[in-house]
Design a protein that fits this description.
The structure is a single chain. The chain is built from ten helices and 16 strands. It starts with 6 loop residues before the first helix and ends with a helix.
Length: 338
């Protein structure tokens, strides 16, 4: 398993160990949440010398390692491509050299979709393009129908939606999927990409792109400040607890050979960013007016991205079990890392 020392990866390690599996973790960071039943190799996935020894007697690979976040500036592009794409390519070349034909599970991301799915009352299903800065500056946050300009209704995005990565990180996650799929076809090995939606829960660092906003809200509330909500707070997301994500990985790693392809790993329950901030505010019992809607915006953010969990339920037997209110109360009570 690569990246097993991180937020999501450490929970996957725990779930695999609890399920009776022998786990070897390859990570360039020290384990902040070490599981005593797992073995740890401190190494960079881009180092080809690591793999001949590590891959002996391995029957499944969980590839969680990645540089996350949107970066600070475009010049970060080489770091993202090096860590995510080159790192994946080095791993896949090593798996090919080892004759690996077991299951490969990639930690994917919902960012590969760009905007989520929408429906126009007049034109039917539509996929709007990136939101122009002029509209955002005018407070027009909802994307219009690209055909007739009318209002769109957000819908659940399924795995057969076209990929439309809109930042460097998203582009590298899409390329990771393509590289792994090419390896699977070449080796006739089963490959699964788990497209994580907004993962949150214990150990989540403040700068994590999946649930960083939740962590930032908790930190603000604990410091006596009101959470600052961007846009009008109506952005819809799908928040899924990290322990559910860990169980999805166990299901994918132990699924029948015929189960391959991408899967949304999500709750299927849309929640706005403002609703999340209000839930955390209630969970922490803070006085005052609550979250502040600022109207601020970031170019490149998407408005709505909510997943259909149906394929994961049908083929992996996965359904998110932790309720939103329950999970947010836990996050508020136990805090975050970082």
């Amino acid at each position: 398993m690569t990246g097993g020392c991180g937020f999501i990866g450490s929970h996957v390690v725990d779930a695999l160990v609890a399920d009776g599996h022998d786990v070897v973790v390859v990570d360039r960071d020290d384990p902040a949440f070490e599981n005593p039943a797992a073995s740890y190799v401190r190494a960079d996935v881009r180092d080809p010398s690591v793999w001949p020894t590590v891959l002996r007697r391995v029957d499944a690979v969980s590839h969680q390692a990645a540089r996350v976040g949107l970066g600070v500036r475009f010049s970060d592009v080489t770091d993202y491509v090096d860590d995510n794409d080159v790192g994946t390519a080095v791993l896949l070349r090593a798996l090919d050299a080892a004759g690996f034909e077991g299951r490969l599970v990639l930690a994917g991301s919902m960012v590969v979709y760009g905007e989520g799915a929408y429906t126009c009352a007049s034109c039917g299903p539509r996929r709007p393009g990136p939101r122009p800065a002029a509209r955002l500056a005018a407070g027009l946050f909802e994307p219009p129908c690209p055909t007739c300009g009318c209002a769109l209704a957000p819908a659940s995005v399924s795995e057969d939606a076209p990929l439309d990565p809109r930042n460097v990180y998203a582009a590298t996650k899409a390329h990771q999927e393509h590289l792994c799929a090419a390896f699977g076809r070449e080796r006739e090995a089963p490959v699964v990409a788990l497209r994580y939606h907004n993962v949150y829960g214990p150990r989540c660092p403040v700068d994590n792109p999946y649930a960083g906003v939740a962590s930032l809200f908790v930190r603000a509330l604990r410091g006596g400040a009101a959470p600052q909500v961007f846009e009008d707070g109506g952005q819809r997301r799908d928040f899924v607890h990290v322990t559910d994500v860990a169980q999805a990985n166990v299901a994918a790693l132990t699924a029948p050979v015929a189960v391959t392809g991408p899967f949304n790993i999500a709750s299927g329950r849309p929640t706005t960013v403002l609703e999340m901030a209000e839930e955390l505010w209630r969970a922490l019992g803070r006085p005052g007016p609550g979250p502040v809607v600022t109207g601020a915006w970031r170019l490149g953010d998407v408005r709505h991205i909510v997943a259909s969990p149906d394929r994961a339920a049908a083929e992996l037997g996965f359904r998110a079990m932790v309720g939103f209110a329950e999970g947010m109360a836990e996050l508020a009570a136990h805090g975050t890392a970082g």
